[in-house]
Amino acid sequence: MPPELLESFRRHVCQTSDSPLALQIEAAHGATLRTRDGRTYVDFLAGIGVNNVGHAHPAVVRAVQAQAERYLHAMVYGEYVLEPQVRLAERLAEVTPAPLSVVYFTNSGTEANEGALKLAKKHTGRRRLVAFRHSYHGDTHGSLSVTGRDVYRDPFLPLLPEVDFLPFGDADALAQIDSETAAVITEPIQGEGGVRVPPDDWLPALRRRCTDVGALLIFDEVQTGFGRTGRLFACERWGVVPDVLALAKALGGGMPLGAFAGSPELMATLSHDPPLAHVTTFGGHPVCCAAGLASLELILSERLAERAERLGAEIRARLREMGERHGGVRDVRGLGMLIGLELDTAARTRAFSELALAEGVIVGWTLHSDTVIRLAPPLNLSDAELERGLAGMERALARSGGGR
């Protein structure tokens, strides 16, 4: 990286850690990134679950170019009829579980969760919210209020009142959801919490409890949506339909886009008493929606959810074999191509992450666990990219604690 560019990066771009990777990206295609110094990296994180169809997929790029030539921002959301927005909403209504047929577009996942929480309070007239320990729903004030890790919450107190946290996956604790509860929000699989998959009976039990007490159930599928877990949406694995489905990350095909979806009756809550009960200037931007529609059609036509199911099982099996050869692996878990590699110590986890990067493989820690590496590669990564990534991770694992 030219020294002046790195200096400007550190001086003028807000830093959120003491040691940013500072890779200067020159180009990105498929699952491969190229930096200005000529190095290439296999992206086993997909921009943290954003690029399910890979970086700069030609079909997505063409959709962006075509829409950019027609018009960019035209009017605040919900006033003009913007074809890309309508077409994407229509397609989402076809593929999401019934009756989730009305979509409100936002700019990001945390904004989708903010809108869902507001919707729940307004619709039920209640104020209490229930979330789960080690959850992650975003960093804006409302989303942070239902994020279950104090280290990220405490510097910003006070947050929303009347929020209670229950243990994730504990069916007995669901009795604490009561008739004062406006909504329960959960990830079907906790991502930042360490790629934690609940017991198979837990989400159905949670659905029944919310129905019994009249609380809305919000599924945050920002990270698990669009084929990532081997189904188009993770909730389909358990046959559970939420009242509100929050989406983002892979929704935009690499462009910034979020959404929350619900039934027509529920979503109508935002149009009256008062009107404009929730608005956004850039949510559903036509270029982002064009990219999102192109990405969704690729995921469906190329059956990438099914590929994620098959390939994810292979990756998990090979990671377990690496652990047997080199030690240090406590667990390999996940569904589809959302995978958690849990190592035995935080020190080894840090070393593994750094050594993998040196081997040209990008992996990521989870925010709420210092011993879990998250893997979420593009669902359509090539065989060559897969093999390069696994080989690099094996060398990193061997070096992180010594072979045996």
Topology (SSEs and partners):
Elements lengths: L2 H10 L12 E5 L2 E4 L4 E4 L2 H4 L8 H13 L12 H13 L6 E5 L2 H16 L3 E5 L8 H5 L4 H4 L9 E4 L14 E6 L15 H12 L2 E5 L23 E4 L10 E5 L1 H4 L18 H16 L2 H23 L2 E7 L2 E6 L2 H13 L2 E2 L1 E3 L2 E7 L7 H19 L3
Parallel strand pairs: 3-13, 5-6, 5-7, 7-8, 8-9
Antiparallel strand pairs: 1-2, 2-3, 4-10, 9-10, 11-12, 12-15, 14-15
Model description:
The chain is an alpha/beta fold and about 400 residues long. It is about 40% helix and about 20% strand. It has 13 helices and 15 strands. It has helices at about 5-10, 45-50, 60-70, 85-95, 110-125, 140-145, 150-155, 200-215, 265, 285-300, 305-325, 345-360, 385-400; strands spanning about 25-30, 30-35, 40-45, 100-105, 130, 165, 180-185, 215-220, 245, 260, 330-335, 340-345, 360, 365, 370-375. Strands 4-10-9-8-7-5-6 form a seven-stranded mixed sheet, with helices on both faces. It has a four-stranded mixed sheet with strand order 1-2-3-13. A four-stranded antiparallel sheet has the order 11-12-15-14, with helices on one face. Strand 14 and strand 15 (about 370-375) form a beta hairpin. Helix 3 (about 60-70) runs antiparallel to helix 10 (about 285-300) and helix 11 packs parallel to helix 13 (about 385-400). The radius of gyration is 21 Å and the shape is globular.
Tag the structure with descriptive keywords.
single chain, 404 residues, alpha/beta, 18% strand
